[in-house]
Amino acid sequence: MTRRSEIGTLGEEKAREWLVKLGYTIREENYKKRYGEVDIIAERQGTLHFIEVKTNKYYPESAFPPEIRINAKKAMNLRKVCETYLRETSVSREQKWQIDVISVILDESGSLRDIKHFENAIFEEQY
């Protein structure tokens, strides 16, 4: 495992723990298709949350938060993966769902320094 993937895996673990504390039920992790992956699929209060986790180590001089790494192509692929999951698992057409982003910042020791949850971060239409 590379250093970068270790940081990503640790960030996903911290995000999962945080979601469970908030009452989310984790349904699936690392759902992959050839065109993309969703890190966490969770449910809370009847809504499915497809969650992309972005993680950085904390550097005081860095002005770029992890979530900024989601570009238009990544957003399009995330949506495609989510729609595939809904079809493959025969989820009801009435099922509410959304794509969220969780931004994780770890300190030098790998402990959680900051976490932010951007609900419904990727919309059907661009604004």
List the helices and strands and how they pair.
Elements: H1 3-21, E1 25-33, E2 36-44, E3 47-57, H2 72-88, E4 96-106, E5 112-118
Parallel strand pairs: 3-4
Antiparallel strand pairs: 1-2, 2-3, 4-5
Task: Provide a quick synopsis of the model.
This protein has one domain (about 5-120): Trna Endonuclease, Chain: A, domain 1, CATH 3.40.1350. Helices cover about 30% and strands about 35% of the residues.
The helix content, as a percent range, equals 25-40%
Order of helices and strands: HEEEHEE
CATH architecture: 3-Layer(aba) Sandwich
Computed structural class: alpha+beta
How is the largest sheet built, in terms of strand order?
1-2-3-4-5
How many domains is the backbone divided into? 1
What this model shows, in words?
- By secondary structure, the protein is an alpha+beta fold.
- It has a single domain, classed as 3-Layer(aba) Sandwich (Trna Endonuclease, Chain: A, domain 1), CATH 3.40.1350.
- It has two helices and five strands.
- It has helices at residues 3-21, 72-88, and strands at residues 25-33, 36-44, 47-57, 96-106, 112-118.
- It has a five-stranded mixed sheet with strand order 1-2-3-4-5.
- The longest helix is centred in the N-terminal third of the chain and has 19 residues, at 3-21.
- The mean pLDDT is 90.
Kindly list the characteristics that best describe this protein.
5 strands; alpha+beta; 2 helices; 5-stranded mixed sheet; 37% strand; 127 residues; globular
